[in-house]
Write a structure and sequence with these properties.
- The chain is mostly helical.
- It has one domain.
- It is 78% helix and 0% strand.
- The chain is built from 6 helices and no strands.
- The longest helix has 31 residues.
- The N and C termini lie far apart (41 Å).
């Protein structure tokens, strides 16, 4: 009997963590992009960006994992039609990245902080 209860709890835990719709994926992605943007908005120079690198690496990796989940979900559910509209949060992130790319040395730091995320995307193909 205890074994059965453990399986029910495990099933509930697993299904509560699983994203099952486009809207849930969008919300998850928006939240991560907002977090990255907030970190970048607080950066004014090369040294501050270097200090924020561990946090950025973590957030970029989370975003990559969501993209891999989306890719897998789309493959398993080809009947769903997905919206093609860009997120407002993505535009804000792009503006912050463009601002920081103008600071000498920052482009390289940002690209290094994205390496693990890029590898996660490649592995998830």
């Amino acid at each position: 009997m205890i074994k059965g209860k453990k399986m029910i709890w495990l099933t509930l835990l697993m299904t509560s963590c699983f994203v099952s719709s486009e809207e849930e994926f969008r919300l998850k992605g928006q939240r991560i992009v907002r977090e990255i943007t907030l970190v970048l908005k607080g950066v004014e120079n090369h040294e501050e960006l270097q200090a924020a690198t561990p946090q950025l690496k973590k957030q970029f990796k989370k975003l990559a994992n969501v993209l891999v989940e989306v890719r897998m979900f789309r493959g398993e559910h080809p009947q769903y039609l997905w919206k093609k509209e860009p997120l407002h949060e993505s535009e804000e992130l792009f503006a912050e990245l463009a601002r920081l790319y103008e600071i000498p040395g920052c482009r390289e730091i940002i690209e290094r902080s994205q390496v693990d995320a890029v590898y996660a995307l490649l592995r998830g193909q």
